[in-house]
């Protein structure tokens, strides 16, 4: 497994530390990984490339950072924290990249395999912000999902893809929605309600079955009308919802998490009745 090094960065925000080890599959992540996998298989297909670029522009990635004390210098005498962004050597081309991940679970899994004692935390950044950091620390670019997809997004390729006009992804024919059987759907909804009541950033919620092109069967999907900050959704909402229902799902079933801003979510909110709606009142 490649050695991870650390380079100082000046990015100020850190998301909460991940504690749960359960895999959370967001619709955004599923779309991005599908587009990435298709493009890796057929890199000369211009339509697949545009779809990948479209997802890349909207995707938020997780990058491992180490927190340390700010070195006091003659120019900077104030104590503070320093964030060191990890870099790694990609053996396929010998270049250094910033490792980035499409979910905190993928990042945790990769770092656990490396068996390191250094405490790392996930930072959430967009592709544009990550490429800026890559140029700043003088590495070749970012390496997406090392250990699985191993996709090197170089500074040169980023300069090229910025010229590609993103296309609107998907239409109603690319997925199907349906109401799932009441058993176990009713039990799942009851579990979700107990958690949703404590989430002031969620106004409505739907529990449905969705058939996506990258899945063979219908999977459970939780759609919420979310009014909080986008970068906090997976850690503060999606993960809690997924953990709350993991004991109620059928064997080997996944649960997808999305919002009404997604294509699937917009269709769900338009065509189905929510099982939960936050009531605003004296105690709301």
Spans where pLDDT lies below 50 across 5 or more residues: 6-22, 167-172
How many domains in all?
2
What structural class is derived from the secondary structure elements? alpha+beta
Helix content: 25-40%
Shape: globular
Amount of beta strand:
25-35%
- By DSSP (H or I, 4+ residues per run), the number of helices equals 8
Major β-sheet, in short?
Answer: 7 strands, mixed
Radius of gyration: 20 Å
Nearest-integer average pLDDT: 81
Quick one: how many beta strands? 13
Structure overview:
- Mean pLDDT is 81; it is low at 6-22 and 167-172.
- Helix 1 runs antiparallel to helix 2 (46-58) and helix 6 packs across helix 7 (233-245).
- The relative contact order is 0.16.
- The chain has 284 residues and is an alpha+beta fold.
- It starts with a strand and ends in a 7-residue tail after the last strand.
- Strands 1, 3, 4, 5, 6, 7 and 8 form a 7-stranded mixed sheet that branches. Strands 2, 9, 10, 11, 12 and 13 form a 6-stranded mixed sheet that branches.
- It folds into 2 domains: 4-161, no CATH class; 172-277, GMP Synthetase, Chain A, domain 3.
- The protein has helices spanning 27-41, 46-58, 104-114, 127-136, 155-161, 182-196, 233-245, 263-271; strands spanning 4-9, 25-26, 60-69, 81-90, 95-100, 121-126, 141-144, 151-154, 176-178, 202-211, 219-226, 255-259, 276-277.
């Amino acid at each position: 497994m490649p050695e991870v090094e650390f380079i100082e960065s000046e990015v100020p925000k850190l998301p909460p530390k991940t504690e749960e080890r359960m895999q959370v599959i967001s619709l955004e992540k599923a779309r991005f990984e599908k587009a990435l996998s298709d493009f890796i298989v057929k890199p000369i297909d211009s339509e697949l490339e545009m779809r990948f670029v479209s997802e890349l522009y909207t995707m938020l990635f997780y990058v491992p950072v180490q927190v340390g004390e700010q070195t006091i210098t003659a120019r900077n005498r104030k104590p503070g924290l320093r964030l060191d962004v990890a870099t790694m050597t990609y053996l396929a081309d010998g270049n250094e990249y910033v490792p980035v991940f499409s979910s905190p679970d993928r990042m945790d899994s990769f770092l656990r395999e490396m068996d390191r004692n250094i405490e790392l935390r996930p930072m959430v950044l967009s592709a544009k912000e990550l490429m800026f950091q890559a140029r700043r620390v003088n590495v070749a670019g970012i390496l997406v999902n090392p250990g699985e997809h191993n996709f090197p997004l170089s500074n040169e390729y980023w300069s090229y893809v910025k010229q590609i006009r993103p296309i609107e992804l998907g239409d109603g024919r690319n997925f199907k929605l349906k109401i799932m059987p009441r058993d176990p759907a009713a039990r799942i909804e009851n579990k979700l309600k107990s958690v949703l009541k404590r989430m002031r950033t969620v106004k409505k919620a739907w529990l449905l079955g969705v058939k996506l092109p990258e899945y063979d069967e219908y999977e459970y999907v939780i759609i919420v009308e979310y009014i909080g900050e986008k970068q906090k959704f997976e850690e503060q909402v999606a993960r809690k919802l997924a953990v709350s229902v993991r004991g109620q799902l059928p064997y080997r079933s996944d649960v997808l998490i999305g919002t009404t801003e997604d294509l699937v979510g917009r269709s769900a909110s338009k065509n189905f009745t929510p099982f939960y709606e936050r009531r605003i009142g004296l105690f709301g």
